[in-house]
């Protein structure tokens, strides 16, 4: 009887996926790594020349000069931190939230520049400043599509931060995934296994 109960429990447990290793978890891992590469690349491209980063921010003609200078200097460092956190899977939901807000800011900035007839390079990966109008008109749709897509990946991580190979799981366990929809999904998946176990016990 004991062996039968143990085997039934083992079978039920075997159907439970490892933390984060579900379809949504693997999608999240892909989103994490893509965003990590983008943010680290953007940061590394800007850090050697922070003055150019300031000029790129000023080119959007939204912020006052003093604020644009601060943003220009801080942005590459923020991008680097967000990229490293996503690469490690540490504070994934918060990193995803910051990533979402940054991408939203970029989408708004590029959209208003396009609407106002400004001809600037987005400065997303270094550079920035004035460029030829024809070149700007060609780049704006591409930049917007790219940033909108990356914003969707960021939103995914805010919604479902549970991913494989993350420090969140190792350091904080399930507490790192409060309000994660996967938690509710896992519970519902476990119910049929529990019911089968109870039915087997009754039949014995």
UniProtKB/TrEMBL annotation:
Localization annotation: Membrane
Cited Pfam families: MauE
Domain Methylamine utilisation protein MauE: 26-159
Region (Disordered): 177-204
Membrane topology of this protein: Multi-pass membrane protein
Biased amino acid composition, Basic and acidic residues: 194-204
GO CC aspect terms: membrane
Keywords per UniProt: Membrane, Transmembrane, Transmembrane helix
Domain of life the protein comes from: Bacteria
GO biological process per UniProt: methylamine metabolic process
Principal subcellular localisation of the protein: membrane
Transmembrane segments: 23-42, 62-87, 94-115
Name this protein carries in UniProt: DoxX family protein
Organism phylogeny: Bacteria, Bacillati, Actinomycetota, Actinomycetes, Propionibacteriales
